[in-house]
Amino acid sequence: MSTVVRPSLIEIAPHATRPSALPDHVYAVLKHKILSCALPPNQRLVEKNLCEELHVSRTPLREALNRLSHEELVSFQPHAGYRVAPITLDGFRNLVGLRTIVEPQAAAVAATRATADDIAELRRCATLPYDPNDDRGFVDYCRANARFHLQVVRTARNPMLENIVMAALDMYQRPTYLRIGRQLDPGNPSAKHHGIVDAIAQHDPAAAQAAMYQHIRGGGERILEALKAAGYA
């Protein structure tokens, strides 16, 4: 049985070439806007306005919204329509919990399967462009960060695991697009990534697992504290 890998945010360019299937295009545009918080959490999605903005009818729009609802990126409320999924403390804790279960294991598997080419690509992706005060550049940082984590899980060669990891990471990064919990040390993310790559390159599953766990746990705790300070419940 083959597994279709759902695209992550890093693979959906804001002005991507329009796919032949119109609902796919609408889905891709809306998903990018939601995950990058161009459509903020809790915002009501007015179908008439979206149809005008995207130059589509309601049929492909509703098909796209239904797909996004299955991914829990939007919610449907009777008599009120669709709304962008909120960011909550419990929801974010669940994302951190999920990532600390699956990504360390993905890194451990990657350490047993990585080829020389895999390791070279991981090293290329490990260093991130980063200026925490540059909003436009921060989008590039988030995409580069996701690309590194995507490369780790692809090295594990498990498409079902890849779907889980990337869906969680895309949701996990939403607060940082709102300037909540951003890493202030420009060198920290790259250093953590290189530590993970070193363990994978040494084909040491336990070390790769531990390095990935510490990386995700540390970032998750930082963002959780920032969400609390910003008044999220």
Kindly describe this structure.
This protein has two domains: 9-84, Arc Repressor Mutant, subunit A (Orthogonal Bundle); 89-229, Four Helix Bundle (Hemerythrin (Met), subunit A), CATH 1.20.120.530. The chain contains ten helices and three strands; from the N terminus they run H-E-H-H-E-E-H-H-H-H-H-H-H. It has helices at 22-35, 47-54, 58-70, 89-113, 116-126, 135-156, 159-172, 174-177, 188-201, 205-229, and strands spanning 44-45, 74-77, 81-84. A hairpin with a 3-residue loop joins strand 2 and strand 3. The longest helix has 25 residues, at 89-113. It is globular and about 55 Å long. The model has no long low-confidence stretch (mean pLDDT 90).
